[in-house]
Amino acid sequence: MKAEDIRAKLEKNVPSAKIKVVRDSLLVENPADLHNVVLALKSDSDLRLDYLSSLTASDFVDYLETVYHLYSIDKRIGPVVLRVRVKRDNPKIPSLVAIYRGAEFQEREAYDTYGITYEGHPDLRRIFMWEGFEGFPMRKDYEQEDSETLDKDDIEWLDRNGVKVPDEMRQKALNPPAPAEDKPATPPAS
Amino acid sequence: MEKTVTLQDSGAIDTQTLDINIGPQHPSTHGVFRMNMKLDGETVVSLKPVMGYLHRNHEQIAENMFYLGSMPYTDRLDYFNSMTNNFVYALTVEKLAQIEVPERADYIRVIMSELTRLVNHVSVTGFLLNDLGAFFTPVLYAFRERERILDIFEEVSGARMMCNYFRFGGVKYDLSGEALVAIKDVVSRFPKFLDEYEKLLTKNEILCMRCQNVGILSPELAISASITGPMLRASGVNYDIRKVDNYSIYDRFKFRVPLGKVGDVYDRYYVRILEMRESLKILEQALKEIPAGEIMAKKMAPFVKAPRNFKPPLGESYARVEAPKGELGIYIVSDGTPQPWRYHVRAPSFINLTILEDLCVGHKVADAVVILGSVDIVLGEVDR
Q1: Contact yes or no for B47/B29 (Cβ under 8 A)
Q2: Contacts of A52 in chain B (CB under 8 A)
Q3: CB A120: neighbour CB atoms within 10 A?
Q4: pLDDT at res. B234
Q5: CATH 3.30.460.80: which residues of chain A?
Q6: What percent of chain B has pLDDT over 90?
């Protein structure tokens, strides 16, 4: 079944939800509608999308996105791709754990790496990073710590303990070089 | 001084629950995995899996790398089954860039991924027995067979475990005549080994007692929790991506999908044994039918020497394969540059851990170890 047909079906079953077709997938424009849309897809007699294969987030600089790949084990169809977009500051999306248990760890992973809060998740904690880790490493603006440059504190500590610090390193610590841009942040057109 | 023991009205001694951690260095966790358990006596009351000790942000490394550069890195996900990891990455990029694969390459791919399934299942059943307390004898027999297959991998790809063998549009090297003979030899010997293995294990009384009715997973929970692979099929759900998606050339082979009835540890063990027999059927057919010809798509010829110039068109793709541990999927968003904008791995052993607590609660600690063994995890893939 094509994305356009599913959109027409959803328009009938969930009239309140605004849905747009993007790259052969369904964009749920208001995150609050997500629950109703997913429940309608899961209970629809033609689709019966009972299996959430993959849930992941991505960063498109202007917004963050969560992508859901749904399949039907019963009808053997899929994938039906759903996407939800939210603003970068304070991103919130309703959690799907109540509908698909399989979302539990995947939402924790997306929270850990992209910082999207899944509202209603029973145990939203970091999963790979340690407690107290700051920042969200998969976001495009995340800056990794430069392990080759010493901090001023490090140099003070070394001086105090009588370790000779080469002048070169001392200079570098006082005037840290600007971080190199690996990749121009121009997201692909949606 | 005399000390009095106070008994509760029920007659039982007042007890407390105990918090313990199994792992991350415990050998029965199959790597650096931690189970944060609450115990009442010897019974598990709650269990929280803790992971991330092997996390290296594979996804970000791939996003800062040209496309082919991540191929060797996918080997390190599930380091037991590098061939299927390569397979799914190649399939995703081929779907993205619409590359057709020559027939011979397709056959080689299927042969390699079925051999991988043999390697995985034979070792995981061995390790499961290890967890049960049959120290190293079953694993030793399993590894003897695994070595033969790893020798073949070495012959065709140059490496035993980190094969890095698949390329977008084909495979790196052609199968030589000797390699084909070696594969045929392994395939013809393997059923005899399986018979011997089963004779020792399948009806073994201790194995039955420890595994039957332990860690039962209901089909409803399995589907809802996105469980895949032998675990899902042991619960009686007929879902094999080789049959459902017919990716590559799996529609050409006749094989059956073994299913369990109860969904306990024993079924998970036995489904894997039966799956090996089905894999052997696929291998026999593939070895009979494999045609001569090219092993690389013509479209990809310019990128063999200059892989950095490869730029798939704008768009996204999600491909999945039936890896030995379950559904392995890769999701890529391309922005038209030589590096992917977004690269995500849907790791089966990571998601299969979701229900570990549901399976273990109410069982003894020793059973929890066996249940974890039957889930079949590899930490390289869980933590990524």
Answers
A1: no
A2: 226
A3: 14
A4: 92
A5: 3-119
A6: 39
- Dump pLDDT digits (tens) for B299-358: 888 888 888 888 888 888 999 999 999 999 999 999 888 889 999 999 999 999 999 999
> In the CATH scheme, what architecture does the domain A3-119 have?
2-Layer Sandwich (3.30)
Q: Determine which helix (DSSP H) or strand (DSSP E) holds B373, and give its type and residue range.
A: helix B365-375
Instruction: Choose the closest CB to A187 out of B225, B341, B350.
Output: B341
Pick from B27, B31, B130: nearest CA to B80 = B31
Q: CB of B242 within 8 A of CB of B322?
A: yes
pLDDT in tens, A75-91: 888 788 999 999 988 89
What mean pLDDT is reported for chain A?
A: 84
For residues B240-276, b (16+ Cβ closer than 10 Å) or e, as one string?
Answer: bbbebbebbebeebebebbbbebbbbbbbbbbbbbbb
Name the residue type at position A166.
P
Three-class secondary structure of residue B296 per DSSP: strand
Q: Which residues pair with B315 in a beta bridge?
A: B334
Give Cα separations from B197 to A1, B123, B271, B273 (angstroms): 46, 12, 14, 9
B381 in Cβ contact with B77 (< 8 Å): yes
Confidence at residue A164, expressed as pLDDT on a 0 to 100 scale: 84
A186 contacts in chain B (CB < 8 Å): 335
Please give the model's pTM, rounded to 2 decimal places: 0.87
B27-48 b/e (C-beta count within 10 Å ≥ 16 → b): ebbbbbbbbebebeeebbeebe
Q: What's the Cα-to-Cα distance from A145 to each of A110, A158, B56, rounded to whole Å?
A: 21, 20, 15
pLDDT bucket at A180, cuts 50 / 70 / 90: low
* CA distance linking residue B378 with residue B81, whole number of Å: 10
The pLDDT tens digits of the residues spanning B204-241 come to 888 888 888 888 999 999 999 999 999 999 999 999 99
Residue in chain A lying closest to B244 (CA): A76
**CA–CA distance, A125 with A108 (Å, rounded to integer):** 6
A100–B384 C-beta distance less than 8 A: no
Relative orientation angle of helices B177-201 and B265-289, to the nearest 10 degrees? 150
Is the Cβ–Cβ distance between B381 and B78 less than 8 Å? Answer: yes
Give the Cα separation of B275 and B234 in Å (integer).
11
> Exposure of B143 by Cβ count < 10 A (0-12 exposed, 13-18 middle, 19+ buried)?
middle
Question: Phi/psi zone of residue A90: left (φ > 0), alpha (ψ -120 to 50 degrees), beta?
Answer: left
- Given a cut of 80, whether residue B132 has pLDDT beyond it is yes
Q: Which residue has the tokens 């209970």?
A: A43
Across the A:B interface, residue pairs with CB atoms under 8 Å apart total 92
Distance CA B183, CA B149 (A): 8
Q: d(Cα B264, Cα B328) in Å, to the nearest integer? A: 23
The amino acid present at B259, given as its one-letter code, is: L
Among B57, B223, B383, the residue with its CB nearest the CB of A73 is: B223
Would you state the structure tokens that stand for residue B357, as one six-digit string? 């607590």
Whether residue A182 is predicted with pLDDT greater than 70 in this model: the reply is no
Determine, for residues A188 and B335 on separate chains, whether the beta-carbon distance falls below 8 Å.
yes
CA distance B153 to B116: 9
